[in-house]
Amino acid sequence: MIRIAGINIPDDKRIEIALTYVYGVGRTTSQKVLDVAGVDPNTRTKDVSAADANKLREEIETKYRVEGELKHIVKTNIRRLREIGCYRGTRHTKGLPVRGQRTKTNNRTVRGNKRMTAGSGRKGTAEKT
Questions:
Q1: Rounded distance between C-alpha atoms, residue 18 and residue 59, angstroms
Q2: Which residue has the higher pLDDT, 125 or 67?
Q3: Is 44 helix (H, G, I), strand (E, B) or coil?
Q4: I want to staple 2 with a disulfide (CB 3.0 to 4.6 A). Which of 9, 65, 76, 112 is the partner?
Q5: Which of 41, 46, 60 has the alpha carbon at shortest distance from 2?
Q6: Mean of per-residue pLDDT scores for the chain
Q7: Which domains does the chain have, with CATH numbers?
Q8: pLDDT: is 106 or 19 the higher one?
Q9: Tens digits of residue pLDDT in 39-58
Q10: Residue 54: Cβ within 10 Å count
Q11: What is the dihedral of CA 72, 73, 76, 78, to 10 degrees?
Q12: Residue 82 belongs to what H/E stretch?
């Protein structure tokens, strides 16, 4: 099993797809890394030699911001937006969509799956005393 940036890469997937398990590495970045390292994208992860695995690990960890470093940068950017009080920062604080999406419907991803229909939280009628 190959370990890159603290993440165990799955053995049974193609190496092009398996590299996307690292936070900050998508399909395009994965293809670029494989081209530079000279590894065939169609090979399975378990078939990659140790030398090629070291090339991939070195390429990703030195030239790209991945995992903890990237998460820290994103978190500090969001914190900065909140502190200066801009519109995007207030949307982050309220837990609402930030990039102009509509909110009357179709915002379940950001707010969570809260179904607020008319009778969803209704209790039984109160007894007379």
A1: 15
A2: 67
A3: strand
A4: 9
A5: 46
A6: 87
A7: 3-64 (1.10.8.50), 68-100 (4.10.910.10)
A8: 19
A9: 999 999 999 999 999 999 99
A10: 12
A11: -110
A12: helix 67-84
H-helix or E-strand spanning residue 7? strand 7-8
Measuring CA to CA, which residue among 37, 35, 36, 41 is closest to residue 15? 41
Report the C-alpha gap between 2 and 54 in whole angstroms: 9
Tokens 């102009």, residue located:
100
* Contact criterion met (CB below 8 Å) for 91 and 98: yes
Q: Distance between CA atoms of 37 and 14, rounded to whole angstroms?
A: 15
Q: Is residue 48 within 8 Å of residue 37, measured between CB atoms?
A: no
- Kindly report the pTM of this predicted structure: 0.72
Count helices and strands (H / E) in the chain. 6, 2
